[in-house]
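RESIDUES AND SHAPES:
===
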Amino acid sequence: MASLRIAVIGAGVIGRTHIDTLARVDGMELAAIVEPAPAGRTLAGERGVPCHADVAALIAAGGIDGAVVAAPNELHLPVTGALLEAGIPVLLEKPVAESVASAAALIAAQARTGTPVLVGHHRRHNAKVKAAKTAIESGAIGGLAVATVTCTLMKPASYFDAAWRRTPGVGGPILINLIHEVDLLRHFFGEIASVQALSGNRIRGLPVEDTAAVLLTFERGGVATLAISDAAAGPWSWDMASGENTARFPAYDVSTHLYGGSLGGLSLPDLKVWRHDGALDWTVRMNATVPAFAWQDPYVAQLAHFGAVIRGAAPLIGIADGSANIVVCDAIREAARTGGARPVDLAALGARAPGQTPR
């Protein structure tokens, strides 16, 4: 079977991650890069592929089977929309778009064209996340009651040289980083009913938040708290604890996600299931076991799945599913702005995310 020819649109950090990963995925090859900056032409020359200034030039050139969209958030709608109209399957990096309105427009474009879209929430392809999902669905910890998620990311000042990362409505750790945590919580608990939040920019003083605390309630019951800061030092983030990308981040043996159920607990990314050694009683010792899993780089697994999507498989995370995370993040930002609770209404997307309740 011939290798699938994949273009990568955007040669920033995540675009380069996909470019590097393509070299390790059987049956796929990098066919082109789209990047207007000079660095894109340099990278394309190193990889021996053409570099196009924009997506229109890529489409006109032809010769690709699929495209990874890793452009800035506000470009996701026009870039992905053009690819869908051209019939080119897309792996769309999270967030789906910068706003609920743009996400809804992409849902409509995908429905109209029928061109498949896989949303790039790569953690769902992580073997530990899959094992955790299996443990939860098997009843290993009973009904989910509570979760605590911590995310500390000391980003260097140079990170914000890219203007979009400090632009309200586009940048900030709620949309850039917290959306990953929202996606995992929806994956485990089901749909989110309401949010409360506080946020501030006192540390960096940029127009976007640098720190936030969030309380979520779920339609099927249960609550979760999340604390995030991209201006706080500490090893407590999925990026540094999961070992998913050791080329970019040092790895630490810490837990960042804690889930409590009616029969036991679960921690991630160490993937420990905690059960009482006897009666359900806080005075009785708990023991931890680790479910079996077969590790695979989630970025490799995600691209391999994208290959299957190009050939006709249903995407693990479709456009409506990924867009639901935008609705939640929008509600979080509005709750932080107003200081009150906000409902999460997926009708804002024009249709409820299919197949998401129950999970």
User: Anything to note?
Assistant: The radius of gyration is 20 Å. The longest strand covers residues 144-152. The longest helix spans residues 319-338. The chain has two domains: 4-122+299-318, 124-295+326-349.
